[in-house]
Structure formats: structure tokens, C-alpha cells
Design goal:
The protein has 432 residues and is of the alpha/beta class. The protein contains 15 helices and 20 strands. It has helices at 11-22, 55-69, 89-103, 141-145, 154-158, 170-173, 180-187, 201-211, 224-233, 263-275, 285-290, 296-309, 329-340, 355-364, 406-414; strands at residues 4-8, 28-31, 43-47, 76-80, 112-115, 123-126, 129-132, 135-136, 165-168, 193-196, 219-222, 254-258, 279-283, 314-318, 349-353, 369-377, 380-386, 393-397, 421-422, 430-431. A hairpin with a 2-residue loop joins strand 7 (129-132) and strand 8 (135-136).
Length: 432
């Protein structure tokens, strides 16, 4: 029986949030689209694919999806947002709350518990403002590159969408004087969204646990950081760590499709290609955008095919110069996917970085569902394709997630040079 629905705005987010539940022993599926068929899982993490849509379009899609699930009063609803607040955060949250209230008008007034912190990767919330490694998000390149304006103060970002916010600071979250649930209940009388500060996983667990005792059942809003705490707070956890993963034999080369252009992602590609036998194929943006109309497209396609015939792993990515315009990125992702599909069905495993790129590749291959198994490090889940032509190991990650050797570690894991997965808990322990 489905116990938790995660509604994400991109595919890598759906996977890294869903794996938090898989680590708690819950059968978890990631799906690229909604179907009327009941999932055989405890948790469904659904990619609504709204990250790059206009706000009005994104809100409409979230409204439709939420209304399909809101009538189930036993279902825990989690709206996954990016820990750097990319996408249509305010528009989608307003639509989700409106749908919940419309579907069950006689029930206690529904609110949102919002905690976007992900301390394990350096994202925290202080006084309602989002920070990355101790720096205000709005001072960093990632904010400007995404075309974001103003400050990363969450109530200010939500106010234009008619959402009344109440910030619960760290003094409230950590207070021993009065139960946090009482404070939340009082704030819920006047606010639509309780924006919760958090610097540690203990803060997030306190938030999740207190929210379970509210007079109304909220919708939880956050990144994977909050999702890790939700099963335990709800009493749904079945285990404290990942079981050993059993993968099908890796019978072909590894295919890395890296669409993210974050500095972290570029460094991961550099280390992978310099520290292993992986061939790097970087395609100029103008070739990707022109496709078959550019003769060089076929040169790169043949290079990719030659590498696979030689059983060599390949990392496929766009060249970073000239700088790729934000509006061109969906087209770049789609072109990378088309190029990848010339060999992807013969791949031993598929590793995709960047939610937009991952989705484009999976759609091109008609992969619609993946069953989550575990994660190699925080935010880097591994799964197996569900209902595809064969069980294909898949690793997805957001471009900015993972250490410098993240992609190299993926390669070593899949080639059985390493066999460890990180614990679902945030202690950093590993299991064999």
C-alpha cells in the first residue's frame, strides 16, 4: 500500500529524495509520469517535470497531480523542492495547498511545513534565509546563473503567491521550554507555511517529529534532507541502513551523460576521465543544437559508437565554451539524449547528471520507472529500471551533488572495484 507520495520538480530530485525512504527500508519507485495503476511500493517519488516550465504552467500541473492523491487521508504528501530554491517554488506550493484544501474542504485547514535545509551537503536555513556552506545563497554564482533576483529569504519569495509565512527560528526548533508541536499549532492558525530553520539533521528530525502531532495533517515541503527524517518521524522505518545491493551483471560499457555545467560537475568529469580508462566526448553546443543538420554531429556519433564497440566506458557532455544560455539548456539536454540513445541500449549501466538531462535520456529510451536500491554517497542514488527491456542499473545525481571523485566512485562501484553504499543515517558510516 502506498504510504508516501513525493512530488518533485525534476528527475534527479525525485531520485535523491526517494532514496531517503529506500534507506529506511521502504520499497520506493521513481516514476517519470503519473499512471492510474497502483504502484507496487510503499513510496512513489513522481517527477512532475516542472522545473523549467513557466510558473503558471507549473502550478497547473501540480494542481492536477495533487488533486489525484489529496483525497487519500492516510497518505503522507511531500513536495520536494530544490535546496538552492531553483524552479517555481512559490507557484507550485500555492497550487498544492489550494488543491489540498479544495479536495477536503471540511477537514482541518491544511498548511505546509517547509524545511529546505540539507545539512549533509552544506545547505542550511537561518532566519528564513537559505545558506550554502555558510554563505547566503543569493551571494553565490548558482543564484545568478539561474536568473534569480533579490535575496534567498523564503517568506519574501512566497509572499507574491499569496502565502502567509511564519518563520520558526532555531531557538524555537531547539527550545526545551515548550513542545515544538504546540508552537506549530499556534502558528498554523494564522500562517499557510511554517518556514523552519535547520542547521543539522537533528533539527530536521525535531521538525518532522513535531509536525506529526499537529491538529491538521500538513504537506511537508523540503529537499532530501527533510525526507531522510520523515519515515522515522512517522513510524514507517523498517531498517536503519541499506541492505547489500544485488545488481545484474554489467555486460557492457558504462555510459555517463553529464548535462550539468556546475563547477563541481565539471571537476567530477575531469577526475573521471583522467583517473580511469573512460573516454571523454565533449560536443560543442552548436553541434548539439543543430543535430543532424551539422555534419560534425555524425562525427561525434561515430566516435561514440567506436568506443562502445571497443567496450570502453564513455562520458558524454557538452563543451562549456561558448557559454550556454539558460534558455538553450533544455535543447542541449534533448540533443545529448538523442546522441546517447545511439548506444545506450548496449550500455552495462547508465549514469546521468542533471535532472533535465537524466529525464531526456530516460524518455528517449522509454524508461518510465526505476526501483531505488540505495546511494553511493549522499544525494547519489542507484536504481534498477522497472518494466523495461532488461534490468538496467541507473545512477542519477544533481549536478552540484557529490565530492570531486563522485563520478569516478560510480565507475568503481559498477565495475565492482568498490561495493559500499552509505548508511541511510547521516553518521557517515558505510556497510559492505
Amino acid at each position: 500500500m502506498l504510504r508516501i507520495l513525493i512530488l518533485a520538480d525534476d528527475l534527479s530530485g525525485a531520485a535523491d529524495c526517494g532514496v531517503a525512504c529506500a534507506g529506511a527500508g521502504l520499497e520506493t519507485l521513481v516514476a517519470l509520469r503519473h499512471t492510474d495503476e497502483e504502484p507496487v511500493a510503499d513510496v512513489l517519488s513522481l517527477d512532475a517535470d516542472t522545473r523549467s516550465l513557466a510558473a503558471e504552467q507549473a502550478a497547473k500541473k501540480i494542481d492536477q497531480l495533487m488533486r489525484g492523491y489529496a483525497a487519500n487521508s492516510d497518505l503522507l504528501l511531500f513536495k520536494k523542492i530544490d535546496s538552492t530554491l531553483r524552479g517555481n517554488v512559490g507557484a507550485e506550493l500555492a497550487a498544492a495547498l489550494r488543491a489540498l484544501r479544495d479536495v477536503r474542504p471540511g477537514a482541518p485547514r491544511r498548511i505546509a511545513i517547509m524545511a529546505p535545509a540539507f545539512p549533509a551537503i552544506g545547505r542550511t536555513t537561518i532566519d528564513g534565509t537559505q545558506f550554502v556552506h555558510g554563505q547566503p545563497l543569493h551571494n553565490l554564482d548558482i543564484w545568478r546563473v539561474q536568473g534569480m533576483n533579490g535575496h534567498a529569504h523564503i517568506p519574501d519569495m512566497l509572499q507574491p503567491f499569496g502565502l502567509q509565512c511564519e518563520v520558526l527560528g532555531l531557538d524555537v526548533i531547539r527550545s526545551a521550554r515548550s513542545p515544538l508541536s504546540d508552537t506549530m499549532n499556534a502558528a498554523a492558525q494564522i500562517a499557510d507555511v511554517l518556514v523552519c530553520d535547520a542547521e543539522t539533521d537533528a533539527d530536521l528530525l525535531a521538525i518532522a517529529s513535531a509536525s506529526m502531532r499537529l491538529d491538521c495533517k500538513p504537506i511537508w515541503v523540503g529537499s532530501a534532507g527533510l525526507a531522510y527524517q520523515l519515515p522515522q518521524a512517522a513510524g514507517l522505518s523498517k531498517t536503519t541502513h541499506f541492505a547489500p545491493v544485488s545488481l545484474p551483471p554489467i555486460s557492457g560499457p558504462l555510459l555517463f551523460v553529464i548535462g550539468s555545467l556546475s563547477r563541481n560537475s565539471l571537476e567530477q568529469v575531469r577526475i573521471l576521465s583522467s583517473s580511469s580508462a573512460t573516454i571523454e566526448i565533449c560536443v560543442p553546443p552548436e553541434v548539439l543544437l543543430a543535430g543532424g543538420r551539422n555534419a560534425d554531429w555524425f562525427v561525434y556519433a561515430h566516435e561514440l559508437e567506436r568506443a562502445f564497440r571497443s567496450n570502453q566506458d564513455v562520458v558524454l557532455s557538452p563543451k562549456t565554451e561558448p557559454r550556454i544560455d539558460l534558455a538553450e539548456r533544455p535543447f542541449i539536454a534533448a540533443a545529448l539524449a538523442r546522441l546517447a540513445t545511439t548506444v545506450a541500449r548496449n550500455a552495462g549501466a547508465l549514469i546521468a547528471s542533471g535532472g533535465e538531462t537524466a529525464r531526456a535520456v530516460f524518455e528517449a529510451l522509454d524508461i518510465t520507472q526505476m526501483r531505488l536500491l540505495g546511494e553511493l554517497e549522499k544525494g547519489i542514488p542507484i536504481s534498477i529500471t522497472e518494466n523495461w527491456s532488461r534490468p538496467l542499473p541507473v545512477i542519477t545525481k544533481a549536478g552540484d551533488f557529490g565530492g570531486a571523485s563522485a563520478l569516478l566512485n560510480c565507475s568503481r562501484f559498477l565495475h565492482r572495484e568498490e561495493s559500499r553504499l552509505v548508511s541511510a543515517r547521516t553518521s557517515g558510516k558505510v556497510i559492505e
